[in-house]
Amino acid sequence: MADAVWSPVHELNQLATLDDSCAGDLATGFCLNCDYGDAGQVTNPDLTADLVPFATNHDTATVFALWRRDGGPVSADAPVVALGTEEGARVIARDLREFLHVIAALTRTGIRCDHTGVVLCDSEPARNHEAFVAWLERAHGPRPATDPAAVIATAHTELGALFAADRLRHRHLRRGSARPAPATTTVEARAFPLL
Predict the structure, then answer these.
(1) Which of 3, 65, 120, 183 has a 20 to 30 A CA-CA distance from 175?
(2) pLDDT tens readout for residues 94-137
(3) What is the chain's percent helix, strand, coil content, to nearest 5?
(4) Residue 52 contacts residue 22 (beta carbons within 8 Å)
């Protein structure tokens, strides 16, 4: 059966179908955006054309976006970035499937991103969490990540420096400089707080 067209990403279309069939959140504070690619009221300067918003944590005002690292078409293999509505952006999963497993493991915890980094914070449990986990197992395999903080830290360690260099390049381009910063700029990945 063909996907309902909400996004160009098959896995997100499957998730949208599940979301439409449930009343309430699938994961703690997590909800798909009404329109794929719509960032709503986000004023974060790190939100550039290579980041495609697809979901929000309404409890923590954090937006989740797929990062088109090479400017090509977006896919489920794209890393997932958490963005604060005004500032802060961090890679939190190496791909969409890993992100889905992370949020499935957060039964009473939401993800918040701001200028200090990514923080896991207490929240109300989602009404449809069990349905989401069952769907995830059927569609994408094993149980959710047992240590979401470790998964987020690994994604940041592996991709954080590359993402930071990319953000510097985008800032340089926004300033209208004739010479963009090289995409291979070395930026040290910094640790970020996780509660």
Answers:
(1) 65
(2) 999 999 999 888 877 788 888 778 888 777 778 888 889 899 99
(3) 30, 20, 50
(4) no
At 170, give phi and psi (nearest 5°). -65, -40
Q: What does DSSP assign to residue 72?
A: S
Three-state DSSP class for 105? helix
Minimal CA–CA distance to 50: which of 31, 32, 71, 77?
A: 71
Alpha helices in the chain (DSSP H): 10-21, 96-105, 129-140, 148-174
Q: What's the pTM value of the predicted model, to 2 decimals?
A: 0.84
Q: Is 57 helix (H, G, I), strand (E, B) or coil?
A: strand
**Token pair of 29 as six digits:** 């504070």
Residues whose CB falls within 8 Å of the CB of residue 125, separated by 6 or more in sequence, listed in order: 28, 107, 108
Hey, which residues does 67 pair with through a beta bridge? 51
